[in-house]
Amino acid sequence: MIKSLLPLAALLLVAPALTLAADRLAPVEGTEVYFIAPADGDTVETTFTVRMGLHGMGVAPAGVDVGNTGHHHLLVNTPLDELDLGAGLPFSEGTRHFGGGQTEASLQLPAGEHTLQLLFMDYRHLSFDPPVVSDVITITVE
Q: From CA 122, how far away is CA 71, in angstroms rounded?
C-alpha cells in the first residue's frame, strides 16, 4: 500500500511548484530597478551600503499581497541565467533577500572584483514575467 501512495505523494510535492511557476505576475509596464549606490566601476570598502532604486511599482515586505508591489533581491557574482525565475530564490551568499521591504542595506564582501545585479520579485519571492532586473554593475572591494 505504501508503494501505491508514493506517486501521489510525489505529485502533491511537485504540483504547488508547477502552479507557482505558471502564475508569475506581470510587472507594471515600464517598471525599472536600478542602483542608486554603488555605481558601476566604484571602489568600495569591505563593508559598504547598497541603495536600491525602483520606478513604476512600490516596495512591500515579502508575504504582503499588495498590488503593484514587490521586494528587492541582490545577485552577488551570480548570473541571472543561472537562476530558475519560476521558483523561489535560494538564500545564499549569491542571492541576498530583502524581504523586509528594505531599499538600503549594509553589505560585506571580500576584497576583489564583484558583480552585482538587482532582481525585483513579487510577494511570493517569484520573479515577475518578464523579470525586473537592473544592469549588472562591477565593483572593486579594497
A: 6
Q: Could you name the CATH architecture of 2-141?
A: Sandwich (2.60)
Q: ω before 130 within 30° of 0 (cis)?
A: yes
Which residues, other chains included, contact 45 with Cβ-Cβ below 8 Å and sequence gap of 6+?
141, 142
Whether pTM > 0.70 for this model: the answer is: yes
What are the pLDDT digits (tens) for 70-116? 999 999 999 999 999 888 888 899 999 999 999 999 999 999 999 99
- Is residue 107 within 8 Å of residue 116, measured between CB atoms? no
Amino acid at 96: R
Other C-beta atoms lying within 10 Å of the C-beta of residue 74: 20
| Residue extents of the structural domains in the chain | 2-141
Give the per-residue pLDDT at 107. Answer: 97
Strands 58-59 and 137-141: unpaired
pLDDT at 14 over 80: no
DSSP assignment letter at 124: T
- The SS3 of residue 136 is coil
Residue 88: DSSP 8-state: P
